[in-house]
Amino acid sequence: MSVILSIETSTTVCSATLARNDNEIAIDKVCYEPQNHASKLPVFLEEIINFARRNDMMPDAVAVSAGPGSYTGLRIGVSSAKGLCYALGVPLIAVDTLQTIVVEAIKRVGDDMLYCPMIDARRMEVYTALFDGNAKRLTEVEAKIIDENSFRELLEEGRVVFCGNGADKCRQAIRHPNAVFLDDIHPLSSNMLPAAADKLKSGVVEDTAYFEPFYLKEFVGTKPKPMIRKDEIK
Predict the structure, then answer these.
(1) Which residues of 91-124 are buried (b: 16+ CB within 10 A; e: fewer)?
(2) 147 and 156 in contact (C-beta within 8 Å)?
C-alpha cells in the first residue's frame, strides 16, 4: 500500500491531502479564500507532515497539479512539491488539472456523459478539453474563446457537462438544451488521488529537477502605473 501527498493550487482554491492508496484519506486541508496559496499551503503541509510522522504514514510520493491554471498558483504548488520530494527522497507525480475537475463532476452526475471542464483564462477565453465518463481525456488541451457556436456539433449529438471556474461565464453564450452546467466544481487535491495512484503504480513519475507546470500560455505581466508626485499636480 502506498501513501501519497497531493497538492492542488492551480485556481483560487488551495488544497492538500494525505491518503493511503487512492481512497483512504487520512487528512484533507482546503482553503477557498482566493490569493492565499502562499500563506496557507506551507501551513497545510506542515500539519500533514506532522500527522504523517505521528501515524507512521510518511509519503511514498508527492503529487502536484500539472496545469493548466494560474501561473502564480501553479508555481507555488510545484515549488512546494519539489521541496518535499527532495526532503523526503520520494518521486514527483504530475496530475492534469482538468482531469481533476472532471473527477468531481462525475461524482455528481454519473459517468454516461461527455465532460468539458473549463478553467478561466480571462474575458471569454478558457482552458479546456473533452473527457469521457471515466475521466479519460479525448482531445488536446487548448485555450478556447467561447461564443454561441462553441461545441454546437457535440451538443447536437448529446448532453455535455460544463464545469470548473471558467464554465459559469459561458452560460449566456452556450444556451443549447443539451448543455449541462455544474456550479462549484473545483480542482481539489483529494480528487487527484486516483490518477496519482495509477501513475505511481505504473512508474510514471517526473524528473523533479526539470519538471515545469503546463501553463499553456506564456505569463504576461503588467507594468504598474507611474506614481505622480504632489509637486507635479497643477
Answers:
(1) bbbbbbbbbbbbbbbbeeeeeebbbbbbbbbeeb
(2) no
**Strands ordered across the beta sheet of 114-120:** 142-145, 125-128, 114-120, 160-163, 179-181
Distance CA 88, CA 60 (A): 9
| C-alpha to C-alpha distances, 88 to 53, 82, 170, 191, 218, nearest whole angstrom | 12, 10, 43, 23, 31
Q: Which domains does the chain have, with CATH numbers?
A: 3-97+187-202 (3.30.420.40), 98-181 (3.30.420.40)
Query: Which amino acid, residue 137?
Result: R
Per-residue pLDDT of the chain (234 residues), as tens digits, is 799 999 999 999 999 999 997 789 999 999 999 989 999 999 999 999 999 999 999 999 999 999 999 999 999 999 999 999 999 999 999 999 999 999 999 999 988 899 999 999 988 999 999 999 999 999 999 999 999 999 999 999 999 999 999 999 999 899 999 999 999 999 999 999 999 999 999 999 999 999 999 998 654 444 555 555 555 554
Q: What is the pTM of this model?
A: 0.90
At residue 185, what are phi and psi to the nearest 5 degrees? -105, 115
3-state secondary structure of 176: coil
C-alpha torsion 186→189→193→197, nearest 10: 130
d(CA 44, CA 126): 29
